[in-house]
Structure of 1-deoxy-D-xylulose-5-phosphate synthase:
Amino acid sequence: MNAHPLLETINAPADLRRLSRAELKLLAHELRDFVLQSVSRTGGHLSSNLGTVELTIALHAVFDTPHDRLVWDVGHQTYPHKILTGRRERMGSLRQLGGISGFPRRDESEYDTFGTAHSSTSISAALGMALAAQLKGENRHAVAIIGDGAMTAGMAFEALNNAGVPHAGIPANMLVVLNDNDMSISPPVGALNKYLARLMSGKFYAAAREGAKSVLKNAPPLLELARRLEEHAKGMVIPGTIFEEFGFNYVGPIDGHDLDALIPTLENLRDKKGPQFLHVVTKKGYGYKLAEADPIAYHGPGKFDPALGLVKPATPPKPTFTQVFGQWLCDMAAADPRLVGITPAMREGSGMVEFHQRFPQRYFDVGIAEQHAVTFGAGLACEGLKPVVAIYSTFLQRGYDQLIHDVALQNLPVVFALDRAGLVGADGATHAGAYDIAFLRCIPNVSLLAPADEDECRTALTTAFRQQHPVAVRYPRGAGVGKPVQPGFAEWPWGKGEVRRRGQRIAILAFGTLLYPALEVGERLDATVANMRFIKPLDTALVAELARTHDAIVTVEEGCLPGGAGAAVMEALQAAGLDTPVLALGLPDEFIEHGDPAKLLALVGLDAAGIEQAVLKRFGPKPALVAPVQAAVNE
Ligand SMILES: Cc1ncc(C[n+]2csc(CCOP(=O)(O)OP(=O)(O)O)c2C)c(N)n1
Ligand SMILES: CC(=O)[C@@H](O)[C@H](O)COP(=O)(O)O
Ligand SMILES: [Mg+2]
């Protein structure tokens, strides 16, 4: 039986613009079911997408997309948009190798006007588009759709600050839609959230409802009703929201699941000049009871049966590196009262739920504010506390200047627990932790450690914590080889790697979890394998010793080749006057797409087979070297 007959007639937004309001409501019903069924088969972001079904339909119904520009913030809520813009049949390939992305991509569809995945960029981008249209004399609308979580970031406010005043006397014709579901991934934090909650509650919301009733008594036609309701509510009860202070015309809050409210309000705003702001209230997980009840669990689930929901696996899986970090954090916090933990809105993803429960005074969720997280940590460190900033490698990119200027320059003892280092899989290039080695090892005072397994992760964290300067520990998404983690607080000798296998001819220097495939290759080729542990300070004595005693060096890392650990080894050899040939293996100088992490590693030649092949190709099976030149390319 066809469960989505109306949806199947929609191959582009123009198709839905022909539907009546009643049909659009039916479409919303089918679309929500389609999203649920589809995500249950592929995994992906669910709660946010269930919450944006009506908003997506309304936006495409009112605006002339793709001529008008919709810019989705983060973009994890764009599955309804993808389905309505010609990608319904490709949803089965979502986030898989060769399939469509889980985020908007300009190269995927003309309806995806701006690539996103890191949050809080939408207002800036939409403002750019709006002003470009005005400068070029084009008549088009630009709409930014941003969540209440993403709205907390500095970047969003930088953009509001810019957009709210006319440029050269001309106001920006743009619309910001605030999709307020009172949730980030975790419950939202901060003063803005409290402010939005106040807008929604008490005197204000009651007055808005009264306004609605009085308009209803006169029973005008539906479109007029909604328009008058919106005008009425705005005029009567909102003397000046913060958004109006920024120069926007604020409207709302309105029910983001009610097409009868959304469509006329959007039509009204579409025809207004200058910066417009629409506050829409939605429910994360809307329409799927389990997700409504637990939007955190359904924020980004794997595959599941919609009838049963998420079920715990019968046998507990191997602990992830994130869990190892979370356990270490609690243990170290119990041992050292100076420890404080900081997360920029990633409590669950960074493994800090238990720490939050047990040490609420020492837990800081600062919102989606990576720059602030880093400098806030610096401030805490100035006063003798020991901050641990738990942050995904990709999101530390946001706090780079803060890391250099506020932490490293002052040599403050901040620990960076860099989760999701290396390829992350389904989220793809936007989330890959590909650059941290390159961008950290060039900063004076900063050290960088790369544990090879779960047990080493705990040791590396302790080693980092005991230093008096900034240290980052990088570890990947998911589980490693499953090495049992020893309790206690073992430490590494500072700056020392270890030789794990003595062989001949070739020495493989492994940085991080690729030690294990390197060991397999070592066995097969009878090569020496070193677990380097420290990217910075590099164990230059070990590097030199291995270079002197082997015909060739191979470096292996799950990070970008330019500027990476392999490059550090080559620099060390050059400084020591050694010309031992080096084959550096790592992530090539290109963005790696989404897909299964193991498949991706194989694709870039960083599984055991790929490493072996590259070594044989470069140095041949026996015994002489083919080409005594240094290379930093992934062959
Ligand atoms: C710069 C950055 N930091 C963190 C994240 C991780 N992240 C993705 S979605 C999200 C919550 C966003 O909340 P909101 O904007 O309210 O959207 P909702 O999930 O509620 O739909 C976070 C923290 C990110 N994508 N980008
Ligand atoms: C959209 C976003 O940034 C997060 O939801 C991210 O997808 C989470 O990634 P993890 O699943 O690795 O925590
Ligand atoms: Mg939200």
Summary: Residues 147-149, 181, 183-184 surround magnesium ion (ligand 3) (CB under 6 Å).
